[in-house]
Amino acid sequence: MSIFKQKILWIGTAGVLVVLIVFGAAMMGSMLGTKPRDVPVALVVMDQPANLPNGATLAVGEMMKQKLTSNTQLPIHWTVVGSEEEARAGLDSREYYGALILPADLSAGVASLTGPSPKPATVQIIANEGFNSPAATVVKQGLGQAMKMVNAELSKTMLEQLGQQTQQIPVSVAQALLSPINVHDETVHAVGTNNATGNAPGLLAQIMWMGSLVAGVILFLARGAAMKAGARKWATLAWQPVGGIALVGAASGFLVWMASSWYGMELAQAGETWLFLWLVGATFFLIQSTLLNWIGFPAMAILVLLMFFSMPLLNMAPEFLTQTTRDWIYSWTPLRFGAVGLREVMYFGGWDAAGDNATILWSISGAFLVLLVAAGLKKDKAHQATTAATASNPTTVPIK
């Protein structure tokens, strides 16, 4: 059993445990605690109270407002707004994942059930699919379930009221009482066909991270080979970012074409998607190249871990994540800014919609470009010091 006396066995066992812990934290730690919390939804109450035949006043809108906003079982944070136009503007500006519109004739429609010509009113549930598809689904399902409960309660109340007036209920009234309020579902900023149910921006960002990483390694090796061959350092230092950004631009264009032509991804803003994806890829390339130039190939471990920690979060709404995950990973990972910016470009009208995330990516690119140049200058100074020392004492033999 001498195999168990070998240090490499125990070092390898410890290494396996470290890998499991690190990648377990990356792939499971940030995801297993996810659930929707305080998902922002707009509530519009335009309902006007109506008078019932017995002289009572029916205010369905106010009743629904009280029930919905006090319901702690719904993972929703309600924001009451004054009009449908205001709610739709909030959906366009990505303030809300959905909206519930209670019309002005809501109470009148329910009150009409007690008469010979019932005309149930219709409420609108609007899901902001492009903002985040899973969150929009939660909104749609949660509000749909809430409306079923409201319908059941109103149906019981109106049946009791009619029972006090007559023992016979017309068929039309009985049918209307099964659903006192009609529900109309609407989707805004739809994600289109073959968009991975709204997850296409995150997928494109992940693929671009890998593509730019390959480009970064290629240019890093090419620069080192050129310097060994006697190329001028300033030339290689300049061509590394220039060549990499050009390569990433071509790669991002190919990726958009491939997604559309090969896999049928619907892209309403194909040109602007390509330009923004180019910015995303250039930002990734500059980050990766800077770390490679400063640290060398050990930087690959950092870059791979960053990717694995970021990947599960790219298609999640921040309201689904734990506070720890939001603060320690989601708040700063560059892949998040790329994915969210792509979502805004693809589903909210183009480059103008991604202004904030574009600004962040430009800032990151500029900062890492400076650091990339600084890494080259640092190597130049070290080389100059070595050259000067050798020139002053040519008999000195470096100790290896």
UniProtKB/TrEMBL annotation:
Keywords: Membrane, Transmembrane, Transmembrane helix. Residues 10-372 form the ABC-2 type transporter transmembrane domain. It holds the Pfam family ABC2_membrane_3. It comes from the Bacteria. Its main location: membrane. One of its GO terms (cellular component) is membrane. It is found in: Membrane. GO terms for molecular function: ABC-type transporter activity. It is a multi-pass membrane protein. The chain crosses the membrane at residues 9-32, 203-222, 234-259, 271-287, 294-314, 360-377. This is DUF3533 domain-containing protein. It comes from Cohnella endophytica.
